[in-house]
Design brief:
By secondary structure, the chain is mainly α. It has 2 domains: about 15-90; about 90-125, no CATH class. It is built from 4 helices and no strands. It binds zinc ion (ZN).
Length: about 140
């Protein structure tokens, strides 16, 4: 966060579209960087036993990270969709406004803090919930 006061007449209004789009760009870039690193690693990898299990381990981490990134991209796309339809910043569960503080922290948040916690509890209790916010980080 930088404290810029000079640009624009509306100092408080955060442009969530910009925030979301640059975040999506950042995730995409990190995904392709990982992919490139993976390919390079494969090319100069002499495959004896030890390396193989190491490689499997790295592959697993890579896939796992990728899944999280895919989820995040989907959440960001959803948030942009909500921006287009004027429903951005409204909790999908209770339809109350999500606090700006929360949106600053998690611009793709779908639920207010209270609902997010309630959902987390339901998941912890073993309930199946459509919840792609587990990727909050
Ligand atoms: Zn709510």
């Amino acid at each position: 966060m930088n404290t810029k006061m000079k640009n624009g007449p509306k100092p408080k209004a955060v442009n969530y579209r910009d925030v979301l789009e640059s975040k999506a760009e950042e995730v995409r870039r990190s995904m392709s960087a990982q992919k490139a690193a993976q390919v390079v690693a494969r090319l100069d990898c002499p495959s004896d036993e030890g390396d193989l299990s190491q490689q499997h381990h790295e592959e697993w981490i890579f896939l796992n990270r990728n899944t999280i990134d895919m989820k995040l991209l989907r959440e960001i796309a959803d948030a942009l969709h909500r921006l287009d339809h004027g429903s951005y910043g409204v909790c999908l569960e209770c339809e109350e406004a999500i606090s700006p503080k929360r949106l600053d922290a998690v611009p793709w948040a779908r639920y207010c803090v209270a609902c997010q916690e309630a959902i987390a509890h339901r998941i912890a209790a073993g309930e199946q919930v459509d919840e792609y916010q587990a990727a909050n980080r």
